[in-house]
């Protein structure tokens, strides 16, 4: 087991006493990982960056082929790009959790990195926030937590979401690193993320200025307009 604290990394074995270790080592990727209280997102990113060369090779897919340096720079420098939902200031912690969906007898399991709000308030009334558009500098000092809850949910069309299995699933070093990298590279490099956010904010402003020019449409109606089968995501011939 790997235990990450605010100032060291410990390798705990059933046969040996705890000893200091490195995070990014190919022989440790499948080790269970635990985070001590006080570990921040910035602390984990610092450990990842220590072995940037190894990470960029071993986690090439999770990184989307991107280099780590621009993301480290983004974390260390305050961004002038506005955060539309003010996520960085509204959050009390970042949480890496499991998502397990059973859809048409196929099980998909992946991790999700979200921010937990300090309080639930208008206009969103939600405890959880996506952070894919949030500058990393606003996430740097947030406590980082692992939620080992493991719930398989049935998300079949026209069937109310149903829990079909509940348990716990521990995180490995690989799960931790890949989960973070998948999230921070979701929109590409930080400059790509900021450009997409600015575009979204511009569209929002246009809508607020003249909402009559825009309209909401049901997914079922959109599928009809596109000639898509009601029970599939594929367009009809």
Give the topology:
Elements: E1 2-4, E2 9-11, E3 19-20, E4 33-35, H1 41-50, H2 52-58, H3 69-76, H4 87-90, E5 91-103, E6 106-117, E7 128-130, E8 144-147, E9 149-154, E10 162-168, H5 173-184, H6 190-209, H7 219-226
Parallel strand pairs: 1-4, 5-8, 5-9
Antiparallel strand pairs: 1-2, 2-3, 5-6, 6-7, 9-10
Q: Structural class, judged by helices and strands?
A: alpha/beta
Number of helices: 7
**Could you say how many structural domains there are in total?**
1
Radius of gyration: 20 Å
What is the averaged pLDDT score? 83
Instruction: Write the element-wise H/E pattern from the N-terminal end onward.
Output: EEEEHHHHEEEEEEHHH
Number of strands: 10
Report low-confidence residues grouped into runs of 5 or more. Answer: none
What is the global morphology?
A: globular
- Distance between the amino and carboxyl termini: 53 Å
Helix content: 25-40%
Quick one: biggest sheet? Answer: 6 strands, mixed
Proportion of strand residues: 15-25%
């Amino acid at each position: 087991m790997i235990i990450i604290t605010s100032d060291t990394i410990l390798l705990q074995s059933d046969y040996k006493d705890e000893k200091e270790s490195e995070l990014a080592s190919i022989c440790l990727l499948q080790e269970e990982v635990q985070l001590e209280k006080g570990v921040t997102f910035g602390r984990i990113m610092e450990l990842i960056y220590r072995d940037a060369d190894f990470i960029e090779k071993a986690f090439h897919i999770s990184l989307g082929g991107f280099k780590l340096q621009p993301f480290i720079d983004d974390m260390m420098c305050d961004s002038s790009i506005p955060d539309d939902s003010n996520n960085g200031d509204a959050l009390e912690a970042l949480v890496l959790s499991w998502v397990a969906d059973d859809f048409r007898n196929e099980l998909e399991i992946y991790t999700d990195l979200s921010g937990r709000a300090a309080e639930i308030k208008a206009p969103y009334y939600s405890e959880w926030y996506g952070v894919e558009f949030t500058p990393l500098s606003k996430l740097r000092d947030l406590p980082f937590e692992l939620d080992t809850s493991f719930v398989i949910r049935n998300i079949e069309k026209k069937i109310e979401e149903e829990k079909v299995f509940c348990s716990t699933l521990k995180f490995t070093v690989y799960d931790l690193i890949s989960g973070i990298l998948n999230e921070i590279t979701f929109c590409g490099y930080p400059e790509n993320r900021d450009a997409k956010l600015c575009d979204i904010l511009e569209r929002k402003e246009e809508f607020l200025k003249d909402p009559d020019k825009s309209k909401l449409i049901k997914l079922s109606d959109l599928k009809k307009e596109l000639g898509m089968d009601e029970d599939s995501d594929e367009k009809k011939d």
